[in-house]
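Dear colleague,

Thank you for sharing your sequence with our group. We've completed the structure prediction you requested, and as agreed, I am returning the results in plain text so they can be pasted directly into your records. Please verify that the sequence below matches your submission; if there's any discrepancy, let me know and we will rerun it promptly.
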Amino acid sequence: GSNNVASMLWHHLVEQKQLGLTGPVKEIKLVFDNCVGQNKNNMVLRMLILLVKLKICLKTTAIFLVRGHTKNDADRAYNLLKLLYRKRNIYIPEDLWGAMNEQENFNAVLLTSEIFKDWKEKEDKYLREIKDVTKYHIFSVDATDSDVMYCQGYDGLLVVKQPLVKKTAPTDWY
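Please find the predicted structure tokens below.
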């Protein structure tokens, strides 16, 4: 669900920041399939503002592929994994993790329950809901105006500006 995706994304990006990077990275671009329940929702998208506000990056963009046309690397990897795990007895997450890491060019990470947070509760304190989430495919936040989410149906279409910040989150937010 959306809390899981937001938690894993946050864990990965914050962990990368802690691996020796100094200062914010210039830009983070995230490409998602168009799954409203998991990826294309307020919890995941409002995280873009938090990443900029907390100086993880100077600009962040989420791009959602057009529904029905999401033949990306993740889909390919998942299909290859299905071929593998259907031929095996996999009972626990560690078994699946091991099978996934047997694949060439694949690096699965086994996460513990401690990384999962209630993003909706936290974000609702500081941020408004994004209007018309399903209408847009491109969402971005820039440090020059980090209280605002810029939304587009597709590249070249009119950009809609949505102010989202109610109040600024503390720097030690998570």
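Summary note from our side: DSSP finds five helices and five strands in the chain.

Kind regards,
the structure core
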